[in-house]
Amino acid sequence: MEFRAEAMAIVIRRLRKKRKLSQEVLSGLAGMERSHLGMVETGGRIPNMYTIWRIADALDMRPSELVVLIEEEMEKMGKGG
Predict the structure, then answer these.
(1) pLDDT of res. 1
(2) Domain extents for the chain?
(3) Please, are residues 55 and 12 in contact by the beta-carbon 8 Å criterion?
């Protein structure tokens, strides 16, 4: 499976909105700049594992759960969905 930054962006943005968090709040919880999170959410920046870990923690989930959701989104995109 080929990595797709847009799948990661969609998942992180969807989870943030589902929890009714602004980019400002989520980035603060994750200990990162709001602009960095904004670039992650648009696919303009690909976070390293440490950043994925912090985002997942800020979303109150395990990093592995976040990665599974990203993989599922990539699979949907691969099927035209």
Answers:
(1) 77
(2) 5-78
(3) yes
Q: Round to whole Å and give the CA distance between 18 and 1.
A: 27
Rounded to whole angstroms, how far apart are CA atoms 6 and 20?
A: 21
CB-CB contact of 9 with 32 (8 Å)? no
The CATH homologous superfamily for domain 5-78 is: lambda repressor-like DNA-binding domains (1.10.260.40)
CA atoms of 4 and 14, how far apart (whole Å):
16
**24: which residues sit within 8 A by CB, 6+ positions away?**
34
pTM (2 d.p.): 0.91
